[in-house]
Amino acid sequence: MLRVLLSIEIRNSSGIEIESFINSASSVIADKASYKFRVVGEAKIIAIFEVYDDTVVNTVTADIMRMGPYNVTCTPLIGIERLAYILGLNYQRDIPSTSRLSQKYVAWSELPMDNHGKVEF
User: Fold this and answer.
1) How distant, in Å, are the alpha carbons of 9, 10, 84, 90 from that of 119?
2) Does a structural domain hold residue 53?
3) Contact 47, 8 (CB under 8 A)
4) Domain coverage including residue 19
5) pTM higher than 0.85 for the full model?
6) What CATH number did the domain enclosing 30 receive?
7) Which of 11, 27, 46, 91 is in Cβ range 3.0-4.6 Å of 69 for a Cys bridge?
8) What is the edge-to-edge ordering of all strands in the sheet holding 70-77?
């Protein structure tokens, strides 16, 4: 399964009505994303897609960019088990894993990939 974080931000332009652009982008995403959030205090939406075929993400991205002044960024996401595998680490989880993100908690972590000194999970 491919997991992608899609960030949609309205370019700052004087005289545009932000809410209509936010609503338009949100309607294009509709139910195609597993999760969709409006970023408080910003002209931005983030959505998390969990798909087997990247054409869904490509279509949504193209449709949104065609609509107007949007900056769209796609970032691939990986689970912690896959990260441990890539780094050659032994990962053991005390809590059973679910295949989908929880709707209650979403965390953002960025790790440098230069990997100075491996750490066991």
Assistant:
1) 35, 39, 10, 9
2) yes
3) yes
4) 2-87
5) no
6) 3.30.70.1060
7) 11
8) 35-38, 44-51, 2-10, 70-77
